[in-house]
Amino acid sequence: MLLFAPRNIALLMIASTPIAVSAQATKAAATPSGAVEEFMRALADSNLTRMAELFGNSKGPVVKTKPKDFQKKIVLMQLFLHGVQAQTLGEVPGANGMRTVTTLLTSHGCKVTIPVNVAKAPEGWLVHDFKLDDAAEVNRPCETSRRPGNRRN
After folding, report:
1. Where are the alpha helices (DSSP H) in the chain?
2. Residue 91 CB neighbours (<10 A)
C-alpha cells in the first residue's frame, strides 16, 4: 500500500503540468550504464524534462514519441524514488537488442537491487523499463540485517 505525504500529493499535481519539450535535439546516454546513471541523477534533481529525455524505447525518448500518459509515469517515478541513490553494478544483453543494467538502489540504509532494461535509440541509450514496485521497496522500512536485494515477507 502506498501512502502519500502532502509533499507527494503536491508533486502528483504536477502530473497535469506538461513537461517542457526542448526545441533542440535531445542527448541520450552513450552507454547503457550511463543511461541509468544519468536518469537517476535527473530523478534526484527533480529534473522531469531530463528524465523524459532519458526514458524511452528504440524509437526514441518519450519527450519525442509522446506515448499516452508518459508525463504521469515520469512524475510517479520521481515521486517513488526521490532521494534514492543509484549505483550501476554491471550490464548484460537483454531481449530484443536491449541491455539489462543491474542497479543497486540505496535509501536510509535500505538497499534493493533491480534490473533496469535499456534500449538503443538513434539518439543513444535510453532507460526503457524497470519494475517501479520493486524499486520502491528501497523506501520501505527495512531491517538492519537485511541484505541488498532481499525483500521482507
Report:
1. 6-13, 32-44, 48-54, 62-65, 70-81, 132-136
2. 20
Chain mean position to CA 137: 14
The Cα 26–Cα 23 span in angstroms is: 9
Residue pLDDT, tens place only, 82-112: 889 999 999 999 888 899 999 999 988 899 9
Please give the model's pTM, rounded to 2 decimal places. Answer: 0.76
Would you tell me how many other CB atoms lie within 10 Å of the CB of residue 1? 2
Q: What is the DSSP letter of 94?
A: -
Q: Cell for 75?
A: 512524475
d(CA 75, CA 82): 10
d(C-alpha 32, C-alpha 122), whole Å: 13
The one-letter amino acid at 116: V
What is the Rg, in whole angstroms, of the alpha carbon atoms belonging to the chain? Answer: 15
Quote the DSSP letter at residue 101.
Answer: E
For 117, the 3-state DSSP assignment is strand
Q: What DSSP designation does 14 have? A: G
